[in-house]
Amino acid sequence: MATLTKVPFVDLKAQRDSIQAEVDAAVLNVFDKGDFILGAAVEKFEADYAAYIGAKHAIGVGTGLAAIEIALRAYGVGPGDEVITAANTFIATVLAITAVGATPVFVDMDGERYTIDPAAISAAITPKTRAIVPVHLYGQTADLDGVLAVARRHNLLVIEDAAQAHGAKYRGTRVGTFGHAAAFSFYPAKNLGAYGDGGMITTNDDAAAAKMRLLGNYGQRVKYYHSITGTNSRLDTAQAAVLGVKLPRLDGWNAARRRHASAYSGRLKNIVHTPAPAADAEHIFHLYVIETERRDARREALKQRGVDTGIHYPVPAHLQECVAYLGYKLGTFPVTEAAAGRILSLPMYAELSDAQIDYVCDAVADVLK
Ligand SMILES: *Cc1c(COP(=O)(O)O)cnc(C)c1O
Q: What DSSP line would sit under 150-180, residue for residue?
């Protein structure tokens, strides 16, 4: 076997090679049939995904961002409303809130879990608070008991951002039905990824599901009769066909990620700060994130050794330029801000080999000594 000289951060090709014939046949079938928009593969994948999550409804949409936005819109969240979310999230969570005209209110994270701190949510509630968007970041579920307790106390809507958590479990149940609705992304590098953009909303709420379906399809129940001002955000039939081939393999891929995470942690826990999966959750390691001093220099040193890494995310949401108008200052969320300077995501995907894991661990050990 050839000696390794580098390990990529993700390797979509490796997964493609393992399912190529099946995916190609499924996509060609859509092309031959020609039902490109809301075709049979969409309906089938929605039913399969709902069953997988254990939700009554699954509504395919164009992107993960649109999934959050449409969920908020379906419940009437809009101008004048405040929506609480974690300061340590990908910008899409924030842009969904601003897209409906609501005001994002950020709170700090739990430093062990990397998800929203329920005590901080309580402290941020005002008479204008309408909703909480907990993010199951890195594949680790939020402290849902904590979040849901605050939501119940204040009668708030909960929309889960599950874009990084397809199949992750909280107390034995997959995320996606703990809140009023949940949003998933099928961006190619997610644990369940399409060959392009895609998203899904899951919910047990019949009325909201019907409204979400309308909102994503021009507000029309019957073609050319528009009952509400919707938008065009639908899951492509060809993408649904790809996802339909992948879904039965998701649990196996997530299990592989969990094994790789344990292998990393076994080798690295005595030399660097490794992730601490919560006892009440089944972490699916969308990302494997360590923390280290002198992060940027070490990241560069790893790159020199052929190890690609990522930073998720270098600038916390509350300090992004696009939301400067909200007036948040550095120092507001110490846990999130400290982590932003220390976090480093190591290569993580189901197809990682033992040799690749060893290579990464050797490089990390070497760079940190
Ligand atoms: C990927 C992601 C999204 C957005 O998904 P897109 O499909 O890229 O629009 C939202 N929230 C989080 C936490 C994500 O990681």
A: HHHHHT-EEEEE-TT-TT-EETTEESSSSSS
Ligand 1 proximity of 45 Cβ (cutoff 6 Å): no
Considering the domain 14-248 in this protein, what is its CATH number?
3.40.640.10
The residue contributing the CA closest to ligand 1 atom 10 is 92
Cα-based distances in Å from 26 to 38, 148, 239, 252, 329: 15, 40, 10, 21, 50
Is the C-beta atom of 163 inside 6 A of ligand 1? Answer: yes
Please state, in angstroms and as integers, the Cα–Cα distance from residue 133 to each residue in 125, 178, 204, 364, following that order.
13, 12, 17, 34
Each residue's pLDDT tens digit, 92-138: 999 999 999 999 999 999 999 999 999 999 999 999 999 999 999 99
pLDDT digits (tens, 9 = 90+) for 36-78: 999 999 999 999 999 999 999 999 999 999 999 999 999 999 9
- The sheet that has 173-174: what strands, in order across it? 173-174, 169-170, 281-282
**What end-to-end distance do the CA atoms of the chain give, in Å?**
29
Residue from 90, 97, 289 whose mutation best tests the ligand 1 pocket (most atoms within 8 A of CB): 90
Is the C-beta atom of 93 inside 6 A of ligand 1? yes
Domain ranges for the chain, please list them: 14-248, 249-368
Half-sphere exposure of 193 (CA within 13 A, CB side): 20
Has residue 1 got a pLDDT over 60? no
Structural fold of domain 249-368? Aspartate Aminotransferase, domain 1 (3.90.1150)
Contact 177, 201 (CB under 8 A): no
For ligand 1, whether the C-beta of 317 sits within 6 Å is no
